[in-house]
Amino acid sequence: MAIARSLGLLLFLLLDSDETTERSRNVCQLKDAHEYDTFDLTDIAKCFTKCEQLEDSSCDVGNLQRYWLNYESYLLENSMETVDMPFVKALIQNISTDVSEDLLFSLMPSQIPRQVMQGEDQPTDRVRLPKSLFGTLLPGNRSAVRLAITVLNIGAGNVFKGAKLLQDNGSSVLNNRMVGLSVGQKHTTGLSEPVEITFSHQRQLPNMILTCVFWDVAKGNWDSQGCSTELGDERTVCHCDHLTFFALLLRPILDMATAQTLTRISQAGCGVSMIFLAFTMVLYVTLRLSLQRFKSEDAPKIHMALSSSLFLLNLTFLINVGSSSQGSPASCWVRAAIFHYFLLCVFTWMGLEAFHLYLLAIRVFNTYFGHYFLKLSLLGWGLPALVVIGVGSSNSYGIYTIRNQENRTSLELCWFQKEPALYATVHGYFLVSFLFGAVVLALVAWKFFTLPSVTAGKGQGQTWKSVFTILGLSSLVGMTWGLAVLTPLGLSTIYIFTLFNSLQGVFIFCWFIILYFPRQSTATSSSGTARVDQAHSVSQE
């Protein structure tokens, strides 16, 4: 008998263990019926962290999402007033349908939502419900309607993330919190006065785009239709014309996929530019050997100096991006310094192109300087070297990393590790060169379009010649780099800047061809910068 009882107890324990294991395995699949008692809620809430991969077969994300979406309806049907659990906070309250003012509720983290009365300080996280919501859209004999406000912590897993959010590396829901609003179990849309949800966050969210979104049940994904986003320094206000679950979506401007795409565009553009810059330099050598005037003119030499520095910049960029941050710290330091040097050389020679253009087109007379090109070369190649030596002595070169809000690496290369040096010797240096070039180009454009031959309307083609001349000169003085100031406007401007700037070598080649291989019809023209550039020199070797 004792042996039989022991075997029976052992069999019971084994069966109970199998049942417990099976329940644990099926809890995130929700194959069995689950209630909204404390035990089931706690058990199923663990799936927020368990379900971390999109293809995890142990989780049925769709069932889990439906379970939590229906939880708000369960709260409205029952006589509960509050829910206070680590993963969910809720307030269920009867609201009069003839309220005379908007209602404000606190959504502070780790606290149960509560109504904020008049005279109280407004909490940083809050929701404002318009009075018209309870009167106009909920008519009838009912004097009150039940309101449910739910704050759900969805964790870092893939529940309530959606396929697009999971595919965008670095995208996330702010603080992994979603706010549910429901009134009388009515599907409320098309509000004349939108609900207003305020999410607080740190003052600066670097490289991030903030978007107010709601959970679209039909799509199983986040959507922004019907919601507008009002950005602030330390808060973002969402205005939405319907009731459901809301959240603030964070998407990095340069997520991993975007960074890789931009890098490929830059690499392709730089490769194409290098080919055309090589053609330009070969043509220059050919012309210098065949035409005597090419040995004395300074303009072609300056063009070649800019082309050479741009060619070497593209080359070092391809090497730097291709090798990323691999290698020893010393080799990374050297790559960063060389890349910085040729970048500054490009900026300097673009500024010198603008200076030469000023002498040719604006000053015109008294433009003789002894050993002119030699002095330009000392400035064009020497000044960047002094800056790089100064930056290197301050140990400012190293691994440069762009990270998103989740602290994941979007891009890593050998560049600056100290931002003050980057701002001073790259941003500031470029700004001086760019502004000088822009002013000179504006003066040249003004002079072209105020020439008597243009203002008198002697030929429609003259205006177009001037326009194309200005466009050609803009490539020499680096106006494509000025698109960088537009990049904060959004991702599209980043793509435009990357594409046009990486093709600067192509634009220079086209300008060189037009300038030194003119058509027969324009070869005898007495106007235009091409003519001026070929006919004048500001130095004598």
From TrEMBL:
Name of one Pfam family that matches: 7tm_2
Membrane-topology descriptor: Multi-pass membrane protein
Signal peptide per UniProt: 1-17
TM regions (residue ranges): 271-290, 302-319, 339-360, 372-391, 426-446, 467-487, 493-517
Keywords for the protein's UniProt record, in alphabetical order: Cell membrane, Disulfide bond, G-protein coupled receptor, Glycoprotein, Membrane, Receptor, Signal, Transducer, Transmembrane, Transmembrane helix
Chief location: membrane
Domain G-protein coupled receptors family 2 profile: 262-516
GO cellular component: plasma membrane
Domain GAIN-B: 105-256
Domain of life the protein comes from: Eukaryota
GO biological process assignments: adenylate cyclase-activating G protein-coupled receptor signaling pathway; cell surface receptor signaling pathway
SMART domains the UniProt entry points to: GPS
An MF annotation (GO) of this entry: G protein-coupled receptor activity
Cellular location(s): Cell membrane
Family: Belongs to the G-protein coupled receptor 2 family. Adhesion G-protein coupled receptor (ADGR) subfamily.
Quaternary data: Heterodimer of 2 chains generated by proteolytic processing; the large extracellular N-terminal fragment and the membrane-bound C-terminal fragment predominantly remain associated and non-covalently linked. Interacts with PRTN3; this interaction induces the activation of PAR2. Interacts with GNAO1 (when palmitoylated).
Alphabetized PANTHER family for the sequence: ADHESION G PROTEIN-COUPLED RECEPTOR G3 (PTHR12011:SF285), ADHESION G-PROTEIN COUPLED RECEPTOR (PTHR12011)
UniProt-recorded name of the protein: Adhesion G protein-coupled receptor G3
Organism whose genome encodes this protein: Phodopus roborovskii
Gene field: Adgrg3
